[in-house]
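Hi P.,

Sorry for the delay on this. The queue was packed all week, but I finally got your sequence through. Input first:
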Amino acid sequence: MDLVKDFFNPDNIYFIELMTLTVTAITLLVLRAVKSKLHAQPQNKIWGASLFSLYLPAKSFLIFLTLWHALKLVNQFWVLKLGLSEMPVIPLLIAVHMSWFGFRVVNTLEFAFLDSSETGRLDQTAIIGVAKVCRLLLMVILAIVAFDLLGLDASGLIALGSVSGAALAFASKDLVSNWFGGIMLYMDKPFKVGDWICSPDREIEGTVEYIGWRISKIRTFDMRPLYVPNAMFNNIAVQNPSRMTHRRIKETIGVRYDDIKQVNVIVEDIKTYLKGSEHIAQDQTIIVNFNGFGSSSLNILVYCMTVTTSWVTFHEHKHTVLLAIADIVEQHGGEFAFPTQTLHVNAELESGPEPEIRK
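Then the structure:
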């Protein structure tokens, strides 16, 4: 009994270690009891994500703290003289677990916001970009704190790497260029994940699946993955058909020269049909005019915009419009032209004497 009282005597050298172990054990039990409540927090709020992300880093920190103070207690009790008091273990544990906690908060918010982006409320590309920047900042802060706690001089490392710095910079110039290219993609947002893009300068066309720091992944229409370095987007023109407001129908309808008298009424009826069609955007330009004399046809220009931007639906609407135009041409007795040639034979040559054939 006296031994127990002696252990918990504030003047005893073991008192701090014993009290720390006791408080740590009690805190672990409390943390275990509130685990379900922490995991039930809403993950799309900062405070909810923080509480949700707290359990594992806090549990790990308390376990390591317990082991460390138990080791110090053993060191004091048996006088091992390990020099544990000179090691900045506790500050390092705090820095590592705080960084881990920060990473978990960022990841939790990222996943929650990405789920919300499926409903169109948030920009998926911006969410991924902000999360990557936050993780990068956490890594930089952890490295700075660790250098300071370990007593390392950053200037010494800079001097050590000065000889190879130029070679490293030259070797990594493409990596740095792609990294800055990724930053510009996140800032300018010429496209985002899920967009259909194409480039007239390069053979790049497909759906954006991923935008990374170094490369972007594009799924082509034949389902092959295409990996494009981000720096390339700084030097090429990129079209984003996903952001178009309408799709265009532009066709040249060719009728026979024999139908020259019907051209006027055909043009007017086509224009009337387009202006009354639910598939055609009435607030956009509609042009139907006789456009020129072809080699075998009288050409009528049909120009309009559809109300849909969906690739599949657009072709269904275009199908309907073109068949309706064919019906209008047929109703007025017209026919579509096809390449023809007319041969004129001189009558005198037909009635003249047969040429003399010499043997």
